[in-house]
Amino acid sequence: MVINMAIAKTFGDFFKAKRIGNGLTLREFCRINGFDPGNVSKIERGLFQPPQSKEMLLKYAMALGISEGSEDWLNFCDLAITSAGKLPDDVVTNTELMNALPVLFRTVRNKKLDEEGLEKLIKSIKRELR
Prior knowledge:
This protein is an all-alpha fold. It folds into two domains: 5-86, 434 Repressor (Amino-terminal Domain); 94-129, no CATH class. The protein has helices at 11-21, 26-33, 37-44, 54-64, 71-83, 89-92, 95-111, 115-129. The radius of gyration is 16 Å and the shape is elongated. Mean pLDDT is 88; it is low at 1-5.
């Protein structure tokens, strides 16, 4: 299964895509890195919540070849945090961004965007922020 990591919807999708992208089966990945295959499988399938501690996120990220501070690292952490219903710290501490979030939420809610519409909105926001 090929997953576009730029639009991975869940931490598990992103995790699995990175692992497969590295050419490793679940068992190989776990054996090489000392992880429990049952737990990793449950994380990938969304049955277990992603880890919330930076320490554990770093362990998984290093095993997946994700460098701390990279775009993949930010995506990895954002997906883990948002899966717990929280916002990333850099968002929470940005007053301007926090003030804009309700408008974004209302816009998305009122437009009832499908996947394509949401992708267009994301691209538009990214262009605006450049």
